[in-house]
Amino acid sequence: MTLFLRRTFPLLLTFMLGVASAMQYYIPHPVSEQALTEISVWLRIILGFAMILGIASLCQVHYAKIRTRVAGWGYSLVVYLSMLVTVAVGFWAGGRESGTGLGWIYTYALLALQGTMFSMLGFFVASAAFRAFRARSKEATVLLVAAILMMFGRVPLGEYLVPASGPVAGWLLNVLNLAARRGIIIGISLGGIATSIKIIFGIERSYLGGRE
Amino acid sequence: MFTGHASRARTGIEADHHQCNCHCEHPEGAWQSHCGKVRLLRFTRNDNFVSVFHGSRFTVKLVLSLFLCALYPIPYTLAFSPPEQFEAFDMPGDGGGSIGLSWRSPPFDGPALRYQVFFAEQEGGPYTQLAEFPSNSHYKRDADRPWWNWELTRSAHFYQVKSTRTLSLVNGRPYFFKVALTDGTQRFEGPVRSAVPDPNLFNWNKANNFLLMIVFSILVLISISQAKRRPNIFLRRIPGLDAVEEAIGRATEMGRPILYLTGSDDMSSLSTIAATVILGQVAKRTAAFDTQLKVPHRDPIVMAVCQEIVKESYLEAGRPDAYREDSNFFITSDQFSYTAAVDGIMLRERPAANFFMGFYYAEALLLTETGAGTGAIQIAGTDADLQLPFFITTCDYTLIGEELYAASAYLSREPVLVGTLRGQDQGKAFLLISMVIGTLLATIGALSGSQAFVPVLQLFRDFK
After folding, report:
1. Does A130 lie at the interface with B, CB-CB under 8 angstroms?
2. Do A194 and B424 count as a contact with CB atoms less than 8 A apart?
3. Which CATH code of 2.40.160.20, 3.30.360.10, 2.40.50.100, 2.60.40.10 fits the domain covering B87-195?
4. Which residues of A105-131 are buried (b: 16+ CB within 10 A; e: fewer)?
5. Closest Cβ opposite residue A184 in set B315, B339, B385
6. Residue A118 included in any domain
7. What is the mean pLDDT of residues A137-142?
8. Residue of chain A with shortest Cα separation from B309
9. Residue A145 sits in which domain range?
10. Which CATH class for the B239-412 domain?
């Protein structure tokens, strides 16, 4: 019974749902659409319960850090404090956002911090580009030349100075780049189908845990 | 048929000679010019038709016109009839809520004539006009449908009526349609036809897709059975996977942890499954080397799966005592909060090796650039084609696209898993040959204007 529940039943479930999900793409009947919608609702419910597991894990990890006073335990304290304050304010506001403390925290703390993280991307692109575009090899030199042409072609001033850079950049993007990208996408699609077949037929089962 | 003789008795027609003088009277009653610059003047019942002929100017015009008409025969006429062979039918291969209308394409189709499509919920009406279009448009051939499920012809017109915000077609209920043809002055209605929209069980437009999927699946299964018989299949070197051992060894020597990320998608994503499978292989090695493994998560379900996988890997490696419950931990499901937390771990704990497997969004560069800054050896594997440049730029090794899926077979060397790679390669070879042949046929077709290759090319098209 244990083996059945641990191994056979999950594989059977995977097979049935895998085949049904694949066939759903070819069945336009509303029943098929409804089934998909229903499954996505189930997934959301499962995710809701799983979130309890996640929060428990978060609390456990940070509690252990505070208890053992490991380096940077103060950050764990910030996690606890900010979580508790947000939950308390959320309950106080009745879950409503507009014009409440919860809305204020969301707009002036969370969104601002998210924006800060996202805006750092610009600086990171610059530093990554600096490292990648150093002409240390033939390949890196090709990359450097392509990048310069692209920048000239995409910036109005560059195209004004070198009018040919616009069409050249377009050609690089729409021919060379797109061809390579499509090649990668074809590989990904075939790899995806092969992986799906492995999972549906129970050939790949390590995601269930390694024990046979 | 045309009833213009009666109406002609009360219709006066005057040609406007702007640039072209060649005009004539059509036998069935309409005037038409070669250049189309004809002005039609309508008269009421009480107008004196004869009074038009008064004056010498008109007589000169008429004589000249008749003379020119004799020299230049009329290329087309405005004689027209109501739509024939009109049919209303449930659209094939859909989820219902859609009706197709088709009728014969007559020889007098042209831009001057227009079709009007009407709809009613009762046979007796009231009818609502749904569309109006020139009669030389909306052919059956124009519909984006494959030849095996549709007649690609110009001998019939086609119009599809779909449910919209303003028009709701309920499945199982009859609806009534008629089509009228008009030239602006005359209008002829065809018969009323009804149809019932119904959902279908199979979308035959996607039959080619289904067939290719079946063929490819069979190819993979055959490859697996062959791999079981002949297990020694050559696998090309994947440097990124060869470096896994090196990265774990380096972390062990430095006494620092290994950071492993499973991507930003949930467990239903193939790349996440591939990432968890690779995690199992990595965990076996970290267990053997007694190196600390840290796996921060964005999704609690992925975390639960990974906990199980890592635990089993430690058991398989014979080091259950080395397994730590907190090696997999949840941070947050928010994208940039998670990124900030992982960046913090990288900067504070300085892992010796960072693994970025799975699907990533805008956070990819934020994570990998921070990792590169700490001097860690970085191995990435993703099928997010838009993030690949960032990984290639900032990581030491990158598994590109399908290599992520191949990693499990490559690391475990299990013949059954390796067999699927051969099936994949055969599928790729087939697609490559098809693309070359398809490109040639499409080019020849475009240059010669021939439609002969369309059926072959449609076999590889994705229809909705």
Report:
1. no
2. yes
3. 2.60.40.10
4. beeeeeeeebeebeebbeebeeebeee
5. B385
6. no
7. 83
8. A209
9. 133-212
10. alpha beta
Mean pLDDT of B182-188: 83
Asked if B393 lies within 8 A of A131 by C-beta distance, the reply is yes
Domain count, chain A: 2
Provide the mean pLDDT of chain A: 89
| B226-258: pLDDT as tens digits | 888 888 888 888 888 899 999 999 999 999 999
Quick check: is A85 in a domain? no
SS3 content of chain A, % helix, strand, coil (to 5): 85, 0, 15
Nearest CA in chain B to A182: B385
Q: Which among A29, A50, A73 is the end of a domain?
A: A73
Query: pLDDT grade, residue B60 (50/70/90)?
Result: low
User: In the structure, what pLDDT confidence band is assigned to residue A209 with cuts at 50, 70 and 90?
Assistant: low
What's the whole-number mean pLDDT along residues A139-163? 88
Predicted TM-score (pTM) of the model is 0.77
- Whole-number pLDDT of residue A71: 84
Q: Establish if A199 touches chain B: CB-CB under 8 angstroms.
A: yes
Q: Which long-range contacts (CB under 8 A, 24 or more apart) does B71-77 make?
A: B71/B22, B72/B22, B72/B34, B74/B24, B74/B26, B74/B32, B74/B34, B75/B34, B76/B32, B76/B108, B76/B110, B77/B26, B77/B28, B77/B30, B77/B32, B77/B108
Task: Decide if A138 is inside a domain.
Answer: yes
